UniProtKB/TrEMBL annotation:
Gene3D superfamilies: 3.40.1280.10, Hypothetical PUA domain-like, domain 1 (2.40.240.20). Residues 20-65 form the Ribosomal RNA small subunit methyltransferase E PUA-like domain. Keywords: Cytoplasm, Methyltransferase, rRNA processing, S-adenosyl-L-methionine, Transferase. This is Ribosomal RNA small subunit methyltransferase E. SUPFAM superfamilies: alpha/beta knot (SSF75217), PUA domain-like (SSF88697). Belongs to the RNA methyltransferase RsmE family. Residues 76-237 form the Ribosomal RNA small subunit methyltransferase E methyltransferase domain. Its EC number is 2.1.1.193. It comes from the Bacteria. Specifically methylates the N3 position of the uracil ring of uridine 1498 (m3U1498) in 16S rRNA. Acts on the fully assembled 30S ribosomal subunit.
């Protein structure tokens, strides 16, 4: 099994003896029960990773770690962003979790016109914090050094602007005539995919996105839930553009 990953301040990402404490140290000692001699990776979540082994476990929340080397992971090419319409209940966190595990680089929450869920006021702040916490925890679980960014809630106009600046833009839609599996993808730059809500992408939204350069694409013969479509699409794109080679 690969070494577990823990989030750490950039000051700990250096060769030599470092101490991991606080919530991450508590998780390592009391939950993962790491002991001297076991391998561990510390990351800042922005591409840097410190590789080493535990030399001592102290109390319930403190690890001493001998860091052997520090590596910096290059920026992904091409970069994959998924615009995720707000789903019902906790399906948003499920979508963020599985897309993070698959390898998505950024998630943009979208206030689609047909979305049942609405983020307003205090609820918006709490929901966004949940998405970001989910991305962080899933990033560690997936042994990633670079965690996906979860942007602020975007309007339809803001999504259109994002699509306009992309090197490849697509909307996942069951009536799309072109399979995503056959789309011509760039080797570098930015790929942006849009996932609609339970009620689907509204016709006026499709028109606006088409004007911004985003064509409709279908994934396959079956219709996926909004919470799983982004993950399936990410797997297709990452496999085809060489990121999984």
């Amino acid at each position: 099994m690969s070494a577990p990953v823990f989030l750490a301040d950039s000051g700990l990402l250096r060769p030599g003896t470092v101490v991991l404490d606080g919530p991450e140290g508590r998780h390592a000692v009391s939950v993962r029960r790491l002991r001297p001699g076991e391998e561990i990776v510390l990351t800042d979540g922005a591409g840097a990773g410190a590789y080493g082994s535990v030399t001592a476990a102290e109390g319930k929340d403190r690890l001493q770690i001998a860091v052997r080397e520090v590596r910096t992971e290059p920026e992904p090419r091409p970069r994959l962003t998924v615009v995720q319409a707000l789903p019902k209940g906790d399906r948003g966190e499920l979508a963020v979790e599985t897309m993070t595990e698959t390898g998505v680089d950024a998630v943009v929450p979208w206030a689609a016109s047909r979305a049942v869920t609405r983020w307003k006021g205090e609820r918006a702040a709490k929901s966004l914090a949940k998405w970001r916490n989910t991305a962080r925890e899933a990033g560690k679980q997936a042994r990633r050094l670079r965690f996906p960014q979860v942007a602020d809630l975007a309007s339809t106009a803001e999504v259109a602007q994002l699509l306009r600046s992309a090197d490849f833009a697509g909307v996942l839609h069951e009536e799309g005539s072109t399979p995503l599996a056959t789309a011509e993808l760039p080797a570098v730059g930015e790929i942006v995919l849009v996932v609609g809500p339970e009620g689907g992408v509204a016709p006026e939204e499709l028109e606006l996105f088409a004007a911004a350069g985003a064509a409709p694409f279908r994934l396959g013969p079956s219709v996926l839930r909004t919470s799983t479509a982004g993950t399936a699409a990410a797997a297709v794109v990452l496999a085809r553009c060489g990121r999984w080679n």
